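2024-03-11 09:14:02 INFO receiving multi-entity request
2024-03-11 09:14:02 INFO entity count = two
2024-03-11 09:14:03 INFO echoing inputs for audit
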Amino acid sequence: MSQQNPDVLPHAAAGSVGLIEPQVHHFDTPLELECGRTLPTYDLVYETYGTLNRDASNAVLICHALSGHHHAAGYHRPDDKRPGWWDTCIGPGKVIDTDRFFVVSLNNLGGCHGSTGPASINPETGQPWGPDFPMMTVKDWVNSQARLADVLGIQRWAAVIGGSMGGMQALQWSIDYPERLSHAVVIAAAPKLSAQNIAFNEVARQSILTDPNFHGGRYYLHDTYPRQGLILARMVGHITYLSDDAMRMKFGRDLRAGRFHFGFDVEFQVESYLRHQGEVFSRNFDANTYLLMTKALDYFDPAREFDHSLEQALAKPSCNFLVMSFTSDWRFAPERSREIVNGLVHAGRNVSYAEIDTPKGHDAFLLDIPEYTKLFGAYMHRVANEVENSANETESRTENAGASADA
Amino acid sequence: MRDDLQLISDWIPENATLLDLGCGDGTLLAHLKTHKQTAGYGLEINQDNLAACFEKGVNVLEQDLDGGLGNFQDHRFDYVVMTQALQAVLRPDQILNEMVRVGREAIITFPNFGHWKVRAYLGLKGRMPVSSALPYEWYNTPNIHLCTVQDFETHCRKHGIRILERQVINRNHRTSVLSKWWPNLFGEIAIYRVKG
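2024-03-11 09:21:47 INFO inference complete, emitting structure
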């Protein structure tokens, strides 16, 4: 940030959306789910940044990734050490410019940060849902997000944006609600998971499921949680978020104490880092949510109901697409993004594609990488211009209509 | 807009679909989209150009021409256009084949290495030619496969590529009587419309 004044708290610095208060909306209309079950009532927690314009045409939806949530930008409290998870991209003057856009970011159903999920109370039993919470799919999330859009009075999103699993939601939006978005921004995503992707998810799940503290998913009743399982799940996940190069640059073979101990305690820096990441994650994330989110990823395959043809699946969308990938991402490698691009090109859709050259791996989508920021920014600039031009047109039409009525 | 781009856009009918190889900042695509309601994509690898296309609202895909056009189906586009890039690709013959496969027609422009000034430069000075159409030194030029009007036409004949139309223009992007009669000697930039 330009201001280096140590007296200025981060939330008050230029480029920050500042202090943010999450909001909760309670939905009473049952939501039918892809698995065949119905969620009778539910809550969605969300945050908004910026101001909705008069014709509600400047709204942007942010879809979160596996371990994400509604808190994408700004700070909840002045003493928060870190801002929301996508603060690098969202704020005044940033790529997703809150001076121009009204940004909505929610926690998906099944989550553990305030929206209804496995840790919530099942109204029928008075107990936490636990393993009885219905399985969610990307499609279900998109349906619930559309209802949130209704509540907020947003008929059509200027853009639906997401990285990784969030990108999959943006893609699903374009297929399921083609008339309700102008742009879909799909970053570091894939049209479906590969066998290797599913394999990594399964290792993560097994580590949770086989933790003795898992108690069949009813650990809430035993006042415990599968800590070790969650740590392992996060550790294996985290390896896939970084690239070989990124790990080499960050840790190399550095030893914590500078010499071998010939034991199984933490010796290499990379071990220490992974254990720390796992530890922090296990304290802040619900195991049942992790199981559910990884399963939703595994199930994602929009081409499946179109005879396994991505081209046919993408025949409906009328929005413009921006697809971006990162060269060193091996979780969802550039080839996976190009599958989406090719599907869109074959279907004759408007699409632009950029491949960002970076050693940062999958997590690059969360970082401020100059080339990424520049290209993403250029695209969002165009989106904002379109919104403002059409808003001006509407205004001048209304004024003209007013003038002729006066006459 | 550059005059060679203007010439090309005159050749393209309304509502055509296009693929522009090495589309630069998207000027041609944006112009055709506005004036002829065309649809299509540009391919580009330069970051600043990609950003410029994004801003213009032109569809652009980051893709290296040397990797081929395998991701596009046969006759997917009415026109595949490549301006001033033929001489810079690894295998001009292969990209030409790809262009006439993916497009019903292809439009190609390149600097003519047979122009009399180029010949004179090499013949008299004994050094690799440098000019406004070929502004690089031998060691830093991206132009690794330069050819003449005659080379190009011979290649097309040999490989069953039909030449539908030809324009050769000078440095100021004008056609002259001389370049009409002796294109290989007096044309600085050659523009072709071809078909597979």
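2024-03-11 09:21:48 INFO post-check: Residues 155 and 161 of chain B are 8 Å apart (CA to CA).
2024-03-11 09:21:48 INFO post-check: The beta strands of chain B are 17-21, 39-44, 60-62, 77-83, 103-111, 162-169, 189-195.
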